[in-house]
Amino acid sequence: MASSPDRGRKPRPRELGIVLGTLEPGPHNAITDVAGVRVGHVTIIDDGSSEDPPRGPARTGVTVVLPHGGNLFREKVPAAFHVINGYGKAAGSTQVQELGSIETPIALTNTLSIGAAFEGLVRHALEVNPDIGRTAGNVNPVVAECSDARLNDIRALVVRPRHVIDAIRAATDGPVREGSVGAGTGIIAYGWKGGIGTASRLVSTAGEPYVVGVLVQANFGRARELRIAGVPVGESLRPPAAQPHGDGGGSCVIVLATSAPADSRQLGRLARRAQNGLARTGTSGDHNSGDYVIAFSTAQRIPHVPAADQLPAAVLPEDGPLIDVLFQAVTEATEEAVVSALLAAEPAGTPDRDGGHGGTPLPADQLLACLGRVLVNGRPGNFGGHDRQGDK
User: Fold this and answer.
1) C-alpha to C-alpha distances, 98 to 101, 139, 140, 306, nearest whole angstrom
2) How many domains does the chain have?
3) Could you say which of 93, 101, 113, 251 is catalytic?
């Protein structure tokens, strides 16, 4: 079993002329535009084995997001956890909700590998903190998941703790690989091949400029519901065949980072706006979809052992334009991250478990034809007869 080679990158939405929203993206249009944030992947692809019992194909992996490159257990970050729909598994969520901080990298993987990813985060924390479990208390790993059972033999449990540690060690800032990579390797969105997507937005009012970055694990939505740039493309652009296992359900995990000095409560307010971004892509949310938002701020660090009885903290004003623009940034970045995941995906290289075509990527040429895109000085014009306000 081996990790997949690095494939050539496919054009991102803006490179195809698909401009979503009005705020400007950061330099990489990625969650790593928030200074200090790093992303790492381990991708596991093979075609199975003749073991007894035989194992099916592996199309899975791990993606990690590090709020900073230091010791997260010693220097935690403010955080919040928001449940859009709770049909899923998310380890560590209750302590994040209770204490308002994150103290490990955030790991994403498949549903039945939550335990392995949890152990990987624990082993990494023990490696760099020899006092955990002795004099420093315990550690709260944060793991979320999407099911990749249609394209991956999820029962084989091929994700192991070492893959999480490898992903952490491989994590970098700068451009982020998207699509069929890491925890996005075997997932499906809107009936097409899904995956990892990311985007960012710059927020500047009269004061200091801030960055909002989003990374999604997109594994949700019904093919007929897909909307891109407000256009109901799912009405005419469909996957090669109806999915015999049902069209819909799935899950979406959203990791939200910002450089704005938001406390846990304010991060919860930002996290709730991610649902607006998902809705813009067409989903109304299904009963059996596990949809979560994990949000954190890099503006301050919370020491594991405080030096005083009180900690200084800067928080956002909640009157005035800044909070509203941050809400807009979350919405736009989430929407674009989902579309970017769809466009970056590669063919699965194996039929889904029902012999269907859930591993087929969304074809960019057909999408552009469906949008009927017209560009005027680089700005979006008319989408197949659907007028956009301000772009007439």
Assistant:
1) 8, 14, 12, 18
2) 1
3) 251
- DSSP secondary structure code for residue 16 in this structure: G
CATH code of residue 276: 3.60.70.12
Q: Does residue 297 have an active-site annotation?
A: no
Whole-angstrom Cα Rg for the chain? 20
**Residue type, position 273, single letter:** R
Match 């450089």 to its residue by tokens: 259
Q: What's the pTM value of the predicted model, to 2 decimals?
A: 0.92
Can you give the residue range of the structural domain that contains 183?
13-370
Instruction: Produce one character per residue of 57-76: b if its CB has 16 or more CB atoms within 10 Å, e if not.
Output: bbbbbbbbbbbbeeebbeeb
Give the pLDDT score at 321.
85
Tell me the β-bridge partners of 38: 66
* 263 catalytically annotated: no
SS3 256: strand
Catalytic residue among 289, 297, 340, 352: 289
The type of residue at 116 is A
* Cβ contacts of 32 within 8 Å, gap of 6 or more: 38, 39, 172, 173, 174, 175, 176, 198, 213
Residue at 228 is within a domain: yes
How far apart are alpha carbons 47 and 1 in whole angstroms? 9
Active-site residue flag, 251: yes
The pLDDT mean for the chain works out to: 90
Q: 356 or 195, which is more confident? A: 195
Q: Is residue 160 part of a domain?
A: yes
Which H/E stretch holds residue 145?
strand 142-146
Q: What is the pLDDT of residue 51?
A: 76
In the three-class reduction of DSSP (H, G, I as helix; E, B as strand; rest coil), residue 254 is classed as strand
pLDDT surpasses 60 at 251? yes
Asked, for residue 78, whether it belongs to a domain, the answer is yes
Where does the chain have alpha helices with state H? 93-99, 114-128, 161-170, 264-280, 321-344, 364-371
Residue with tokens 């998941």: 145
On the question of pLDDT at 246 being above 70, the answer is no
Asked, for residue 382, whether it belongs to a domain, the answer is no
> Could you read off the pLDDT of 151-168 as tens digits, one per residue?
999 999 999 999 999 999
Pair 325, 209: CB distance under 8 Å: no
The catalytically annotated residue of 264, 291, 297, 352 is: 291
Contact 351, 293 (CB under 8 A): no
Look up residue 235 and give its two tokens: 């009405």
pLDDT of res. 74: 97
